[in-house]
Amino acid sequence: MKTVSAADAVALIPNGATLMIGGFMGVGTPERLIDELVRQGKRDLTIIANDTASPGCGIGKLVDAGLVSRTIASHIGLNPETQKQMIAGTMTVDLVPQGTLIERIRAGGFGLGGVLTPTGVGTIVEEGKQKVEINGKSYLIETALHAEFALIDAFLADYSGNLAYALTARNFNPVIAMAADTTLVTAEHIVPVGLIAPDHVVTPAPLVDYVVTN
Amino acid sequence: MSAMDPQTIIAKRIAQELRSGMLVNLGIGIPTMVANYVPNAVKVFFQSENGLIGTGPIPEQGMGHRLLTDAGGRPVTALPGACTFDSAMSFGLIRGGHVDVTVLGALQVDAHGLLANWMIPGKMVPGMGGAMDLVTGAKRVIIAMQHTAKGKPKIVSKCTLPLTSARPVDLVVSELAVIEFVGGHATLQETAPGVSVEQVIAATEAKLAIADNVSEMRV
After folding, report:
1. Chain B: residue nearest A171 by CA?
2. What DSSP line would sit under B103-169, residue for residue?
3. Top-level CATH class of B6-216?
4. What does R_g of chain A's alpha carbons equal in angstroms?
């Protein structure tokens, strides 16, 4: 793990990159990395996240700045700007049931090709997907997702890279930490090694590449 | 006493379906109001799918925490004994059948209990969020909705809007009636105070079976 400035962390990201971003309606989203993406004008991004928050908040700032060309999310209902860009055709939006989205990410990080889920069977979600029957019940094959970068917000990080989260800001963060080539982390507090008890570490240090200095 | 508004009637009636020890997930809108009418003696675990069991009421002004929100992103409280977890765990709870009851809104419910509640093609495409997983995985699915929208029935013969799940819902509670899906057919069980069976039939497009002893909703 290396500590870096937000500017240097975001400088690693090329235009056109695929990013998984933590957060649920902006809660648990690494705002400083988002702000830096906007400042550096990283374009043509593919965003994999639960939602696109709302205008001016979290991932919504990337949408506002017109930096996103594709979004894979479960919900965009609270961001009219995302819907506007989707209807205008300047952004492609793949809507995925939330439980399926997080499992596809988990599969990507856990070395699985995908998962079998009953969610979406008999709905438009099953279009174009393989269906299998196991013990008389139908499941969709939902394929794994990977990203080049995971942008994570933690509550505590230690100087070896162990992470712990707070309250409802955990959400997608520990799952995306497994599913990307490079992880960039912001943390509310960066603490000495040993201060996060082994039983309280949620994301183990070897998964963390960069922690942004506070 | 002034007449109770439709949303309150619905929320009060659904609250009676909850029992101590149940894990319950409430959707946005009328479903959220259900929590206000659960008797103090009934200790329910409310789940917020963004990663919380033990969701409490909305905090007093100035007492919220920016990292403690519900699935709509609004500040909530966490009751003593609450716990937090990631989204994979949260949806494992939902899809895995560990949630006893989910209460959700609806655009349409059909004669067999199939639900459409997540999009109106060409008009409203917010994304399904957690709705498809909740309807597919929860042990019991209760729909909280007004009986009609702009005068048109919402309980229809067949949904014209995209379905949420192949799994039918268990119960619909509106301001007019309680409808249960007995053997796969919409069956009128209760009518609201002052509402006749005929009024419910007139406001419903789906063919309703009528229970032998239709009772009055207690609200």
Report:
1. B86
2. EE--SEEETT--EE-S-BTTTB----TTHHHHHHH-SEEEEE--SEETTEESEESS--SPPS-SSPP
3. alpha beta
4. 17
User: Domain for residue A90, yes or no?
Assistant: yes
Residue A114 lies in a domain: no
pTM: 0.97
CA pair distance A102, B89, nearest whole angstrom: 9
* pLDDT tens per residue, range B48-97: 999 999 999 999 999 999 999 999 889 999 999 999 999 999 999 999 99
Chain A interface disruption, residue of B132, B161, B163, most A CBs within 10 A: B132
Give the gap in angstroms from C-alpha B218 to the nearest C-alpha of chain A: 35
Q: What is the average pLDDT value for chain B, to the nearest integer?
A: 95
Structural domain boundaries in chain B: 6-216
Note down the domain range covering A45: 2-96+147-212
Smallest CA–CA separation between B196 and chain A, in Å? 35
Catalytic residues of B: 49
Token pair in block for residue B22: 């149940």
The helix/strand/coil state of A53 is: coil
Residue from B87, B107, B167 to probe the interface with A (highest A Cβ count within 10 Å): B87
Q: How confident is the model at residue B2 (pLDDT cuts 50, 70, 90)?
A: low
CATH code (residue A200) = 3.40.1080.10
Does B137 contact A77 at a Cβ distance shorter than 8 Å?
no
Question: Three-class SS of residue B48?
Answer: strand
Average pLDDT over residues B184-212: 97
Q: Is residue A128 in some structural domain?
A: no
Please count the structural domains in chain A. Answer: 1
Amino acid at B114: L
If you average pLDDT over every residue of chain A, what do you get? 98
Mind listing the pLDDT tens digit for each residue in A30-58? 999 999 999 999 999 999 999 999 999 99
Question: Distance (Å) from the C-alpha of residue B121 to the closest C-alpha of chain A?
Answer: 12
Could you tell me which residues of chain B have a Cβ less than 8 Å from any Cβ in chain A? 48-52, 65-69, 71-73, 78, 84-88, 90-91, 94-95, 125-133, 136-137, 162-166
Backbone angles phi, psi at B75, to 5 degrees: -60, 140
Hey, are the CB atoms on A98 and B137 less than 8 Å from each other?
no
CB A76 to CB B126 under 8 A?
yes
Segment A129-144 mean pLDDT: 98
Q: Which percentage of chain B shows pLDDT scores above 90?
A: 93
